């Protein structure tokens, strides 16, 4: 089965010229690239690119008085295929609740986008309890046939951007709990590097959500190749 590799560029790169260079450098990689909203414009992407285009967030409404937001319908019109929802940085810095994330998932599904739902525990929290609660609340009242379309990314918050990745065998324990509840594709994310990328696939993950390492073209290419 084909593995899923997602690059989350976050709020990078800082200008259009650098974005064009980065797009060109990853042109032939079989991955999903999620740049900032301002770089989703079709003319920025190189023609014939192999990668799939994703977004980092969306609102739950189709349109309206929501200054600074972008709707799933707008993303769809730009050629976006999937959207990251519920990333821990959105939960922490922008106070996104599970109720808000639930509405975003429903909106993304309505407009035919594939949601990438991020869940995971903070340092000191019980991973299994947190993941169980987030799955229950985030997927509330979403029908089974739609739940199957959602890709889940297990990202321990304490591992994101810290270099302190979750050991594959430890992550496997959480993966086991998730697979008991859902039959979806589950990715691992959190300080992913080429040195350990293949190990997550070996323990059962269906792919990776890569943050900082996705901005290093050589490193990201190694991750894609290894997986």
List keywords for this structure.
227 residues, alpha/beta, 9 helices, 15% strand, TIM Barrel, 8 strands, globular
What does the model show?
With 227 residues, the protein is α/β, with parallel strands linked by helices. It has a single domain (4-226), classed as TIM Barrel. The protein contains nine helices and eight strands. The protein has helices spanning 16-25, 72-77, 88-93, 98-110, 127-138, 144-147, 168-181, 197-202, 217-226; strands at 4-8, 32-34, 52-55, 82-85, 114-119, 151-154, 186-189, 207-210. It has an eight-stranded parallel barrel, surrounded by four helices. Helix 1 links the parallel strand 1 and strand 2 (32-34). The N and C termini lie close together (11 Å). The mean pLDDT is 96.
List the helices and strands and how they pair.
Elements lengths: L3 E5 L7 H10 L6 E3 L17 E4 L16 H6 L4 E4 L2 H6 L4 H13 L3 E6 L7 H12 L5 H4 L3 E4 L13 H14 L4 E4 L7 H6 L4 E4 L6 H10 L1
Parallel strand pairs: 1-2, 1-8, 2-3, 3-4, 4-5, 5-6, 6-7, 7-8
